[in-house]
Design a protein that fits this description.
Blueprint (H helix, E strand, L loop, with lengths): L5 E7 L6 H9 L8 E7 L6 H11 L3 E5 L5 H11 L4 E4 L4 E2 L4 H11 L4 E9 L5 H9 L3 H4 L3 H4 L7 E2 L7 E3 H7 L10 H11 L4 E12 L4 H13 L1 H8 L9 H18 L2 H27 L6 H28 L2 H4 L9
Parallel strand pairs: 1-2, 1-4, 2-3, 6-9
Antiparallel strand pairs: 4-8, 5-9, 6-8, 7-9
Helix pairs in contact: 5-14, 9-11, 10-14, 11-14, 12-13, 12-14, 13-14
Amino acid sequence: MTNNYISIIIPVRNEHKYIDKLLSSIVNQDFEKVNLEVIFVDGLSTDNTKDKIIEYSQKYNFIKIFDNQYKTVPYALNIGIKNAKGDIIIRLDAHAEYPANYISTLVYYLQKLNADNVGGVWETIPANNSLKAKSIAMALSSSFGVGNATYRLNSSNDEYLEVDTVPFGCYKREIFERIGYFDEQLTRNQDNEFNERLKKAGGKIFLIPSLKIKYYARENYSKLYKMFYQYGYFGPLVDIKLGRPTRLRRYVPTLFVLALLLLPFAGLIFKPFLFIWFFVITVYSISSFIFATYECSKRSILKLIPFVMWAYFVSHISYGLGYIKGVLDFIIRKKHLKSKVDVELSR
């Protein structure tokens, strides 16, 4: 067992639906608690989230809590890191359950691979038993829904894979001293931007496919829309901060939305553009049906096919529209240079 001291950072805000399962999975970790601290950073919760954490902290002295007046995730992460004592930093999310060997496995591979960041695979599960929730979980576990985001697809038998990003992450402390903290302007995508920065600095990021995280998806389409809109919205700001484009999968939904919006107008001038528009819609619809049928067939729930197709469409359209709005705000208006980027996190 490692002699390293581990600090776990968990941003929370109004997590009453998930906080009990989260706290239970932390307490049941097989890692030696004498070498562990768990830092919750609460974004001024208005439910019983903070009370529940305080209750656990009175029973377990390795659990601590700090306040985050800014409410959003990057501020919470930086508050946690700056108050952490560990030489290994692990970020967790409140909307997930973690296996008992989660911490010990991450630390083992961080050291074995001499990595700068390691993480596990998301098993996206429904927030409840509704058809909407089930369809959203399926869509976010499909390559048609999320592209080639390896950590979401759960399809590799390798012991480990070098990747561009992982969910949450287990970092060497010295990484933050070397390349800085999470960007507090990025309400969303702060982990993607940080990991791109880490790779640019020569860092190595590895995914451990055998390490499964149960991640709760959004329970309805409006929340799915809001989440992916925010992912898209902050995409251009990530590009600006990195000084270059990132991964191709992050631009495909925007191209799709632009095709839907612009080709009909172009067709008024040059009629063949209308045929291209029809072709795009046809190919998308057929692809959506094929992937939805495949996902539903695997689970023997064929009645979910139209629901999964709608989840695909909602996530793609919202991301694309968010990205276009981000281009207007950050690339054209340069909003991030004039004022604080203040966007409330979706949940």
